[in-house]
Write a structure and sequence with these properties.
Blueprint (H helix, E strand, L loop, with lengths): L6 E5 L3 H13 L3 E5 L2 H7 L7 E4 L8 H10 L8 E5 L4 H9 L4 E4 L4 H72 L5 H10 L1 H32 L8 E3 L1 H16 L9 E6 L5 E3 L1 H24 L2 H9 L3 E11 L2 E10 L29 H12 L3 E7 L3 E9 L7
Parallel strand pairs: 1-2, 1-3, 3-4, 4-5, 7-9
Antiparallel strand pairs: 6-8, 9-10, 10-12, 11-12
Bound molecules: adenosine-5'-triphosphate and magnesium ion.
Length: 414
């Protein structure tokens, strides 16, 4: 039962009340589910995340206050706004309800228009909150990236330029040594011993190789700094015509440490089936964040498959961990779209959670590992900011393929 206005869980021990409330909400375009007491409501919420909860207070078993306290104490439900809907109209109870974390308190009998207006306010507030979290996450990321890039860049320049001097001084000292050798062909025993001790001919050769590998390392770090800067698009205006393949390249560069092999699996093979993509009018920093979320999820799904059980590991040995990124421009319903597919051969998404993965704070990862915001933010960026679509197909145990489609010719819209 989908509704684009939002989903509401109504909790009340009187079936007649539930019926009336459900009817009002459904007529107003909300999807409604119900529970007849607090314990059942809490149980339902383990598998379902409504946008708002309407909660009666006087109920058998745990009352509305206690239900609200438990919901607010649980990380998975604490963010869902709770409105108390009750016959208890005295101030003491109102204050108690608000202190327990309720966002509003409506007394029965209620005015239909007022109920709907208040619900709308809180659902809109929740949407605005996600928007704020997304924006602050983006700007925090941008700032952090800029700081790191700056911090690394300066010392890196010392190393990089000094390698040239080190090579030049080495050459000059060796030349001096050769002059000594030519003009004093019979050195003392002490000099002979030391020359042998340090293996002079090896040292001369190895020193240059060592400088060369330092130079390569320094160049690689410089490349990462460039990627960090362009990943956050710090140097550029927000909305512009840009090359999505560049964004994918920067994102993959930043993820290279996660793609490497680890104790559970070999390195993830990244296959790029890139087609022709025109420049797309978009916000590249935001789209990079979408690529990052999809690729991180793909890597995590692969990691989970390979570290899960011994049986899964055995099966997994047969197949190399792989992410396929394909791009193409397609015309759908007369609209010119840039399509990007990210397919992994990880654990796949169980059907039971397929309806939830785009919900904010929905995560199957352990505490501290996932915030459950990756796909919620990706969806907002793709559908709301870029007027595109994000979809996926998944097969349990086999893998998942996400597809984003961004309209190409939006230049005149923004
Ligand atoms: N490629 C995938 N393969 C399997 N499951 C996935 C994949 N992408 C997403 N999921 C499922 O969807 C859930 C939500 O994903 P989302 O990116 O929103 O949050 P997260 O990865 O758990 O945390 P965060 O991205 O905020 O660190 C994941 O916890 C996971 O269960
Ligand atoms: Mg994620």
């Amino acid at each position: 039962m989908m509704s684009n206005k939002g989903q509401i869980l109504a909790v009340d021990d009187t079936p007649a009340n539930l019926k009336v409330i459900s009817e009002i909400l459904r007529n107003a375009g909300y999807a409604v589910s119900t529970a007849i007491d607090g314990e059942r409501a809490i149980k339902r919420l383990q598998h379902y995340q409504p946008d708002l909860i309407l909660l009666d207070i006087s109920m058998p078993g745990i009352d509305g206050f206690e239900t609200c306290r438990r919901l607010k104490a649980d990380r998975n439900t604490s963010h869902i706004p709770v409105i108390f809907l009750t016959a208890l109209s005295d101030t003491v109870n109102k204050v108690k309800g608000l202190e327990l974390g309720g966002v509003d308190y409506i007394t029965k009998p209620f005015e239909q228009a007022e109920l709907l207006a208040r619900i709308k306010v809180h659902i809109d507030l929740k949407k605005a909150q996600l928007q704020l979290i997304q924006e602050s996450k983006l700007s925090m990321l941008g700032e952090l990236v800029a700081r790191i890039a700056h911090e690394i860049n300066n010392p890196m320049t010392f190393i990089y330029t000094n390698i040239n001097y080190a090579a030049q001084y080495h050459e000059e000292l060796i030349h001096l040594l050769e002059l000594y050798e030519a003009q004093f062909p019979t050195p003392s025993q002490e000099i002979e011993d030391w020359r042998e001790e340090i293996d002079l001919s090896f040292l001369k050769q190895d020193y240059l190789q060592l400088l060369e590998s330092m130079r390569l390392g320094a160049e690689r770090i410089k490349g990462i700094v460039v990627s960090l800067r362009s990943f956050a698009k710090l140097d550029e205006a927000e909305w512009k015509l840009s090359n999505l393949h560049e964004g994918l390249k920067d994102t993959l560069m930043l993820l290279s440490y996660r793609l490497q092999g680890n104790s559970c699996r070999e390195a993830v093979k990244v296959v790029k089936n890139y087609g022709e993509l025109p420049l797309v009018y978009c916000n590249p920093a935001q789209l990079n964040q979408v690529f990052m979320s999809l690729l991180m999820n793909a890597i995590e799904a692969i990691d989970e498959k390979h570290s899960n059980s011994a049986a899964a590991a055995e099966e997994a040995i047969l197949e190399c961990p792989q992410i396929v990124i394909s791009t193409a421009s397609e015309i759908v319903d007369g609209k010119n779209l840039a399509c990007i597919h990210v397919a992994d051969n990880g654990i796949g998404i169980p059907e039971t959670i397929q309806a939830q993965i785009f919900e904010q704070f929905f995560t199957t990862k352990s505490t501290g590992k996932g915030t459950g915001l990756g796909l919620a933010i990706a969806k907002q960026i793709v559908t709301e900011k870029h007027e595109g679509t994000i979809t996926y197909t998944s097969e349990l145990g086999k893998g998942t393929k996400f597809t984003i489609a961004i309209p190409i010719d939006r230049k005149n819209l923004s």
